[in-house]
Amino acid sequence: MENDSLQTSLAWLRDILQGKIGHGLDARVLQGLRVIHAEKGFMRFDFVVPKSVSDIDGNWNVGALASLVDLLGGVTIFSFANRVVTSVDFSVSYYSTAKIQEHVLIESKVSANKGNLKHVVVEVKRKGNGEVIAVGKQWMASNKLSVAQDVDGNWHVGALASLLDLIGIVTIYSFVNRVISTVDFSASYYSTTKIQVKTFLFTFGVIFLIFNFYS
Length: 215
What we know:
The chain is of the alpha+beta class. The protein has one domain: Hotdog Thioesterase (Thiol Ester Dehydrase, Chain A, Roll). It has 4 helices and 8 strands, in the order ααββαββββαββ. The longest helix is centred in the N-terminal third of the chain and has 20 residues.
């Protein structure tokens, strides 16, 4: 039911904010977030940029902003699809900056529904004058069978994308020894593989990641 998916998505967001699920970075980038409107596939949020996500110039760290966009896009799609969702394609365009303690409004809306694929647009605007700070666009894959299997018994493209993202993060962390978050992510798919088949990861996916470091 519609209300079930909406309430579940809001409960999920609340648990992230309270640090009950996810990891410390998620709670950090969402610190102080307030839901001001929520319906199936559409949400608005009120947010004061906290000190914990500052870059060296006192601006909202772009990596933290990208993480926020990713999380809120996922919450919005879950409210629409009522399914586990994973990022397949994700991009953020930055048009301005926001200072720490600046008040912003965030709007997240499901803009396309193509079977298991959902598209969400997340806009971040300055509260005072409505100036656009950033726009995130994201395709996410939903799957009711399992996290890793699609309806044809193949490796679910969303699960594969998540694996690529996580392995990229682990590899870069081993190099820089810092907290990192995805700013730009894409995966290209050249073939499929069945569940329970051993394979080499990069036979099926090519990943390009740009990371931003928290100072």
